[in-house]
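Sample entry follows:

:::
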Amino acid sequence: MEKREATMSSWSPELTRSPGGLDLLLSRTLFLLLITVAPSAQRVTPSPDACLVFQSENGSSVTCQPPAKFLSYLRADTTFLSVEFYNLTQLPPELLQDMSNLQELHLSSNGLKNLSAKFLLSVPRLKVLDLTRNALTRLPPGLFQNSAALHTLVLTENQLDVLEASWLHGLKALGHLDLSGNRLQTLPNGLLANFTDLRILDLSKNQLETLPPDLLRGPLKLERLHLEGNRLRTLEEDLLVPQPNLHHLFLSNNQLATVAASTFRGLKQLDMLDLSNNLLTSVPKGLWASLGKSRAAQDMKDGFDISGNPWVCDQNLDDLYQWLVDNKDKMFFRNNTCCAEPKAVKGQTLLAVAITHLKFKTGVEMGGMAWQNTAPH
């Protein structure tokens, strides 16, 4: 496990895979590839300076990037539209007119500062909306009033410093919400109250110091939660209770110094846990009881990472020592998981100290049992 990557980008294939569907990033590539090689597909690109247009029996695909001039007219059967890397502060009002069949819309790497509340009214079948790397500071209430089919909403790397629950009203089928790389310091109560089908939530690389207690009480099927790269100092004991099906939990690069003993108690399916690069010196007894080999062979199958913390390797880590030895084959970056104190073991790996500690403890216990067996009765 030593050479394996400990953290995963929120845009890696594993993270963007929607249940029963293609990866969000791969879908564009595969879509274009399939219609290119399919007998029924027909490329109608007039010149190198024009947008790429492909037609197939499933509808048209349009991809526009500089230096291509944006099309003044789009076919009504367009199902895929990508307009990326233009310096657009706002979109042409007629962009989506008469495009009721549109299913994917990619507008990343533009300069968009605002959107009209009526922007998506004409595309009720839209399933994917990618607004990565723009300059949005807010969303207009009512933007998603006709977006009941939208499954994936990506707002990563914008300039959102506040978020209002009302901005997301109307998203009845949302399965993937990416708000990473913004400037969010707080989240409103009830933000996800109506998102019962949410599977992937990415709040990484913001400035969150605390999370609302009810944050995860809405989703019923959450599988992947990204909270890495924030300023979280503690994890409340009831935060994850509503999510027994959570598979991947990312908490690296925060300021976590304390974790409640019951934090992971309800996580029956956890396959990956990343607590690296925090301020953990110790953990409460019982924290690991519901994780690892003690429950099922497939638990933590994707591994765990607790490296980059200033561990104080004393008797208070007894519980962690035993858990580490039992699950050492799933541990990332063993050589970077070291003791900061006490002085006698400073710089030694936590796993090595754990093995030594348990051997000594076993020897003492066996010696005590031998003494009891030989003592006169």
